[in-house]
Every structure is written in structure tokens, then in C-alpha cells.
Amino acid sequence: xxxxxxxxxxxxxxxxxxxxxxxxxxxxxxxxxxxxxxxxxxxxxxxxxxxxxxxxxxxxxxxxxxxxxxxxxxxxxxxxxxxxxxxxxxxxxxxxxxxxxxxxxxxxxxxxxxxxxxxxxxxxxxxxxxxxxxxxxxxxxxxxxxxxxxxxxxxxxxxxxxxxxxxxxxxxxxxxxxxxxxxxxxxxxxxxxxxxxxxxxxxxxxxxxxxx
Length: 212
Hints:
By secondary structure, this protein is α+β, with helices and mostly antiparallel strands. It has helices at residues 11-17, 24-27, 33-38, 154-163, 176-189, 200-210, and strands at residues 2-4, 49-51, 78-82, 95-100, 103-108, 114-118, 125-130, 139-144.
């Protein structure tokens, strides 16, 4: 069947909704070869067309007079966040509270500022609260899981710029001057030609710095 990608979809979520333990069962189908060339499985775009095969029964041999154990190996899904200051220096050892769909856990960033947390494929929203020595919380970030658009779209570019601290404005904001200013600031900081246009070279650098 052909599945039409919606906002908030990513491949692990789609696979789980259709009864597949491993998203690669869908992604590696020849019918998805064209989409695979242009998309990251974690960064799909609303309107993308994805072929989802029918589930097939798997046959295994087993002894009739013994207890048989069957193990399903699932591909783990992980939420990965990176904490850095405006100079792109990592916040190492930062204690945080990470809440995913209402369930909270204490986490600590590594030496590179990275926080990793296993999540369920259907997880939709996360909230990260940074703690401080003199205050209960010093910063709060809300994350819509699976909502990051591809870097070759304006919404994807704005989201990455905003995440990196460049004020590109709301994703539905149609103020071209604000977006252009954010692109110029990013280009200036990273040694690119400053023209305010988010072309292929700027997109590549934006994806590199953002991490996806």
C-alpha cells in the first residue's frame, strides 16, 4: 500500500503503526528507492509517498515436545539532543529533567553536550528542563518529535536556525526579511558567502552544524 506522510511522522513511528519491528523492512523496499535517495528516514516531509508492504507470516521449525522460545529483535529508537552555548561550546555534565509524553527522567549531558534517551516509536512531545545550582530550572525547551522538515524546505531551514539560536521566526511566519537576516548571521558565523539565501552550500553547513 502507498502511505502518505503526515506532519510528525518518521519511519520508526510508521513502521510500528503498521506492525513492523524494524523500520528498515519498509525503507529498504525497492519501491522506496527514489524517496530513500532524497530523504533521511528520521526527517520525512508531509506529502511524501512511502510504500508500506503487507505483513507476511514467518515460518519457523519447532519441536512439539519441548518449550520453544522466539525472540523478536526490535530496532531501538533514541531521542538525541545536543546542548551548546551561543559560542557552540558544549554544555558538559549538565543535569536536566527530560519529560517525554508526560513521563519524566533525570538525565545528564555527556562531555560533548549530548543527551540520549530511549523513546517509544509513538512518542510525540518532549520537554527538556535545564537545572541550575541556585534555581530549580534555568531553561526550558519544548520538542515536537518527528516534526523537523527536510533541510531543503524553508520550514526545515527555519527550524534548524531557531534550534541553533538564530531568530528565524515561527515556521508559519512569512516575513522574508527576518528569515534573510537569520541566514546572513548563520553564514557570517560559519565562513560562508553572506547573501541571505539558503542555497545548497548553506543547507549543507546548516545540516552539518545542526546534526541532521
